[in-house]
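In this section we walk through a basic example: taking a raw amino acid sequence and producing a predicted 3D structure, encoded as discrete structure tokens. The instruction is simple. Fold the sequence below.
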Amino acid sequence: MKDVVIVSGARTAIGSFGGVLKTVSSVDLGAIVIRAALERAGLRPEVSDEMMAFAPDKLRDRGMTELEKGYANWNTDATPIAVDEVIMGNVLQAGQGQSPGRQAMIRAGVPKETYGFTVNKICGS
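The resulting token sequence is shown next.
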């Protein structure tokens, strides 16, 4: 990778422990933010040929899963783009399931072929 570009950004609302956001999971908050960042930039994620070349054999020609179809409602006027990777930070991820960043990515409508992971860093001190 030679050129790294941040195209857009978004963040979640700032809440307090046990506050109004307590019923919203970090996965749902992450999905909202990932999708908003892409929509603000006028982009919609798609699977590139290069990504498909590295897909597992059993999934390569199957297309979207039922789960993906439920979240893939993008504006068709948006510019198609292959998202290389999704990195989501998440503190206190106990009880969120495996890889909340990847879950959020899928719920945001980013294809399963995109790499995604979660950074769990509690404190910078």
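Looking at the output, two observations stand out. The chain is about 30% helix and 15% strand. Residues 42 and 77 are 8 Å apart (CA to CA). In the next section we compare this with other chains.
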